[in-house]
């Protein structure tokens, strides 16, 4: 049994998938929204106990998703609920879900109240390309991404008059330029800069993070990369794909593991291209997919929609 409070590590649907939706009128303003995810060995009565835990404190489930894969003897769930924080204080809620996790020997039990809990702290790592980084910064500014950006780290120097630097200075977000080489990836310095973060985002960071770095950091790292089909390696893959006349392009967001681009997938998006596209429109479509895919993956992660499934998969609620 393990109770996880802050960062969910690693959400899907499959056989024996129980999907419940509870419709209600808009909750009174005194009610607060909560989220709970549960991962434990499968057993009879888990859904009933989860419902009773929330209802016994005056809470009301608005939506619940359950996934029990066939012949795996494992249970996953995610519940959206509303409650009165006066009647069900945050500390008491933690204790109640802890008792439930102990009852069912939970692998993971995470509860989050977005209006009361601190936002996730993240650091963003980027190289020369700006499109994903700029989109994340604007998403943070607009409130579309429920995170606090502690800093931006890059192996590419940006001048003081660039859009990125002006934005960061305006919002007091530190920018750290760390020149990397094949012999020195500056990982020790990066670890120092990201000590107090909940997870990292690689916004087209063109450096490979070592296994030692990932183990030392200890939290999740989310990456984005293009999905030009078929795959193209080496320099300027977009031009290669354009010249090959591909008809389908995409983007994949995944967790970073020691296996290069082989971590569990969080989100994927695709779009068709055609002979009518020139290189500029082709690249723009590809970059737009990368921005959308990465942003959606981060939102899903922060909303506790992503859970680990088997060795290389995720359940995405």
Which labels suit this protein?
single chain, 317 residues, alpha/beta, seven-stranded mixed β-sheet, five-stranded antiparallel β-sheet, 8 helices, 14 strands, globular
Task: Characterise the protein shown here.
The protein is α/β, with parallel strands linked by helices and 317 residues long. Mean pLDDT is 91; it is low at 1-7 and 10-25. It contains eight helices and 14 strands. 34% of the residues are buried. The strands form three sheets. It has a seven-stranded mixed β-sheet, with helices on one face. Helix content is 28%, strand content 29%. Strand 3 (60-67) and strand 4 (74-83) form a beta hairpin.
User: Taking all residues together, what is the mean pLDDT?
Assistant: 91
Q: Beta-strand level of the residues, as a percent range?
A: 25-35%
Order of helices and strands: EEHEEHEEHEHEHEHEHEEHEE
Helix share, percent: 25-40%
Q: Give the CA-based shape.
A: globular
Low-confidence stretches: 1-7, 10-25
| C-alpha-based Rg, rounded | 21 Å
Strands ordered across the widest β-sheet: 8-7-6-9-10-11-12
Largest sheet: 7 strands, mixed
Number of strands: 14
Which structural class should the secondary elements be placed in?
Answer: alpha/beta
Tally of individual helices: 8
Distance between the termini: 22 Å
């Amino acid at each position: 049994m393990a109770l996880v409070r802050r960062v969910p590590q690693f959400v899907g649907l499959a056989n024996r998938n129980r999907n419940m939706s509870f419709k209600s009128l808009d909750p009174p303003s005194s009610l607060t929204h909560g989220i709970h995810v549960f991962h434990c060995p499968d057993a009879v009565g888990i859904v009933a106990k989860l419902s009773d835990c929330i209802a016994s404190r005056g809470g009301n489930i608005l939506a619940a998703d359950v996934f029990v894969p066939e012949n795996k003897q494992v249970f996953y769930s995610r519940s959206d609920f509303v409650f009165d924080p006066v009647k069900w204080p945050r500390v008491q809620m933690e204790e109640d879900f802890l008792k439930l996790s102990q009852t069912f020997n939970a692998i993971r039990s995470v509860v989050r109240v977005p209006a009361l809990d601190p936002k996730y702290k993240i650091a963003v790592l980027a190289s020369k390309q700006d499109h994903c980084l700029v989109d994340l910064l604007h998403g943070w500014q607009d409130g579309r991404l429920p995170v606090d950006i502690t800093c931006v780290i890059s192996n590419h120097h940006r001048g003081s008059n660039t859009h990125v630097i002006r934005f960061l200075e305006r919002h007091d977000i530190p920018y750290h330029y760390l020149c990397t080489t094949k012999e020195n990836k500056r990982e020790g310095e990066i670890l120092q800069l990201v000590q107090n973060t909940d997870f990292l985002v690689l916004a087209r960071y063109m450096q490979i993070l070592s296994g030692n770095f990932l183990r030392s950091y200890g939290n999740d790292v989310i990456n984005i990369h293009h999905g030009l089909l078929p795959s193209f390696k080496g320099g300027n893959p977009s031009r290669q794909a354009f010249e090959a006349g591909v008809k389908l392009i995409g983007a994949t967001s995944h967790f970073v593991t020691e296996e290069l681009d082989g971590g569990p997938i969080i989100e994927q998006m695709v779009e068709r291209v055609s002979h009518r596209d020139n290189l500029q429109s082709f690249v723009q479509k590809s970059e737009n997919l990368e921005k959308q895919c990465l942003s959606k993956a981060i939102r899903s992660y922060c909303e506790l929609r992503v859970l680990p499934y088997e060795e290389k998969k995720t359940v995405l609620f």
